[in-house]
Amino acid sequence: MSPWTRLVAGGLFPLHERLKGHHSVAHRRALEASQWWPADRLAALQVQRLQALLHDVATRVPYYRRLFRAQGLTPEQFRTLDDLARLPVTDKALIRAQGQDWLAEGATGLVRQRTSGSSGEPLTFWLSKDRISLDIAAKWRATRWWDVDIGDRELVLWGSAVENQAQNRLRAWRDRLMRSRLVPAQALDGPGLDRVIEQIQRFRPRMLFGYPSALSRVAWRAREQGRRLDDLGIRVAFTTSEVLRPEWRGVIGEVLGCGVANEYGARDAGFIARECPAGGLHVSAEYLIVEVLDDADQPVPPGEAGHLVVTTLAGPEFPFLRYRTGDRGALDTTPCPCGRGLPRLSRLEGRANDGLLAWNGAWVHGSRFNYLLRELDGLRAYKIVQHRRDAVEVLLSADPPPDEGFEQRLRMAFADALGPEVGITLRRVDAVPPEPNGKHRHVVCRVDAG
Length: 450
Known about the structure:
Layout: H1 3-19, H2 24-34, H3 39-60, H4 62-71, H5 92-98, E1 111-114, E2 124-127, H6 129-144, E3 154-158, H7 161-165, H8 169-178, E4 180-184, H9 190-203, E5 207-210, H10 212-224, E6 236-239, H11 246-256, E7 259-266, E8 270-275, E9 281-283, E10 288-293, E11 306-312, E12 323-332, E13 344-351, E14 355-357, E15 363-365, H12 367-373, E16 379-388, E17 391-398, H13 404-418, E18 423-428, E19 443-445
Parallel strand pairs: 3-4, 3-5, 5-6, 6-7, 16-19, 17-18
Antiparallel strand pairs: 1-2, 7-8, 8-9, 9-13, 10-11, 11-12, 12-13, 14-15, 16-17
Helix pairs in contact: 2-6, 3-4, 9-10, 10-11, 12-13
C-alpha cells in the first residue's frame, strides 16, 4: 500500500464519512470480522436482526402495522429464515401505492433517492444514514478483497446521468484526493475508445470500475491496435449493472492483465454481492437476506434459478422486506475456496422481464437465447430486439463474423423457441449500441404481452 493510499484509507476517507454522519469505518471493521464466521452463525445473526427490525416495522410503519394486525403476526414468530414466507413479496408498484404509509413514523435525516426507471418502473425512496453507511462499508470490504483500497488510483467508466451530473466542483476535489477519475461511457466509438485507452495509460489505475460492455469494448479496441494495457499495474476490474458475459470477462482480464470481479446491486436493494478472487459472488449477508423464488413466490430448490428477492436488515425507515429486484439468479450452497462463510450467488441471468413473446403467446426467457449465442466463436456483443409478435432482429458483433452454418442453426433455434411464424433478421454490426443510460441490454421485447 502506498503512503498516499494509507493516508486516504486510514485518515481522509474516514474523516469524510464522519463529517457526513456515516459510520462506515466501524461497519467495515465489523464486516471484515464476521465474513469469516460459519454459515450457521451468520444465519443466526440474520434472524436476530430480522426480529429486531420487525419489532420496529410493525410498530412504526403504517402499512406493516396494519398487515401484522390483520394477519395476527408478531416478530417473535420469525424464528428462522424460512419464516420470512409469512410476509408478502413486495415490489415497486406496491410501495408506490402506499405512499407515506411506507415511511416509518418519526424517521428523520433521510436521504431521498430514485431509481433510474430503466425497467419502466421508477421508484422514489428514502435511505437512512446507517443504511448508506452499511452499503459503503460492504463495498469497501469487498474492494479490499483484491488488495486494493480507497486511495488507490481508480478509473470509473460510467454512463449514468446521476453520477455524471453530480460531478460538481466539491465532488471533483474529493475525487482528486481519493485518486478516482470518472470517464463518461457514452459515445464509445473509435475515437472515443482511443481517448479512454489514452487516459488509462496516462493515469495508470490500480483498479477500474464500470459496465462490462464498455470495459470489454475498450479492451477489444486496445487489442486491435496492439496497445498494451497489461503492464500498467492494474489489479482488478470491477464490473456492475449488466450481466457479465464470459466473452467480456475473458477479453477484459486478458488485455488488462488483471482480475475481473462481478458485482450485483441496486440503488434500492443495496450492495448485494461482489466476487472474491476465488470466484465466489458473496452476498452481504450481515444485513441482507436473499431468497430465490419461482413464479408463484415459492422457494426453488438449492442451485436452481428463480426470481431474486431481497430483505434489507438495515432499519425500519423505508423497509425493503422481501423486495422483488426484477432479476433472476441462483444461490450456490457450496463453500467458497476463499474460506468466507458468506453465502454466494451464481448464474445471474439478468432482468426477469428480459425475454421474448412466442407466436402462441408463451413467454420465453432471454437466457434460452443467451446460451445459444455464447457458442459463437469471436462473439463480442449481441442484442435481440422483438419489434412485433412476428418480427425479431438479432444484432451480432463478432470477429470473425458468423458463417452461414451458424446463422442457419440460430434461425432454427429461434423458430423452435418462438414458432416458425416469427421472422428472424440477422444483422452484422461493428458494435452494438448501448441504451441511452449507457447500459447494454441483451434482450429487448417491444411487444405488449397483453
